[in-house]
Sequence to fold (388 residues):
Amino acid sequence: MSKDVLAGVRDLLPAIRERAEEGESTRQVPEASVKALEETGFFRMLQPKRFDGFEADPIDFFTAVKEIASADGSTGWISSVLGVHPWQVALFPEAAQQAVWGSDTSTRLSSSYAPTGKAVVVEGGYKLSGKWSFSSGSAHASWVLLGGLVFTEDGNVIDFKTFLVPRDKYEIVDVWNVVGLRGTGSNDIVVAETFIPDEFTLSMSDTGRCYGPGQAVNSSNLYKLPFHSLFTTTITTPIVGIATGAYAEHVEMQQKRVRAAYLGEKASSDPFAAVRIARAGSEIDAAWALLMQNIRDEQAHVERGEQIPLQLRLKVRRDQVLGTQRAIDAIDELFEASGGRALAEGTYLQRAWRDAHAGRVHAANDPERALKMYGDLEFGHKIDPGMY
Fold:
């Protein structure tokens, strides 16, 4: 089934690329692209089979995301983010899963995980309120996953949870006026004080230890992988995809380009141009190979019924943040060598350059924090809780 989805996604790439400018101007990925991706089954790849999902290999999911992003960064970005959320919903209590998919298994969810809202414990659940930013693809979703610190009535923090909120309980505020990833519609989410039942919440301390109550009904090994491994890879994969598309575009452009400053020499005859694409191609391939191999290694531990070593989980984060940097470095090298025509509005390369750098500023791509955790563990130091 994953092969069918991948084939369907690849058939859509020309149309997705053609609609990229529309996404830039409207600041939303066109509904036609989202609907076409839905029809391939893409958004069901990580969804439980109990709800018409495929429980696919995450490698296949990430491969599809990379392909989509190679055609348009914004479409790849929201596809990755919206597409990974079914995996987390599968960890929620059964009541939450039924609320999301019980009457419509095509339901999509957006998210904003930074705990900028506030949740207060009340009988049977929580009073949630606040404002959250950067909810990518929120216009294409009817639920949202929101991060929030849990407070007692006397103001003490006792937990960090993800809250599952239906569309009629939040407002989307249009603030997304940016230079890159313009089509992601990563707008603000505002929740006036509303009651969220306890079964519509998931503790991050549980997901941090690869547990969720939904595992009782969704027993696939897919749902035993680390939250932060999958979700940070979800952020880097579109950037690698953008770099992949930029590479292909650059090679095609250089084969046609004539350099007036060098007496009409074909750019593809320049030996330094050949060196640049070799270097850029290696950076992209290295980023992708390490990302996928690390997920494979985690899967192998899960399949053997073993706990995933902390060193491997931190290695995932190490190679994820460096994978983003490798992809950015490759795009920079290609863009700088592409000539003035790459600057024109509407061209793929200038948009890829902007989109990749916009993706780089996501919190999951903060390199120093991830690299310090890995290095500290190697030196035998205590590791503080973090995004691993």
Residues 332 and 387 are 28 Å apart (CA to CA). The chain has a mean pLDDT of 93.
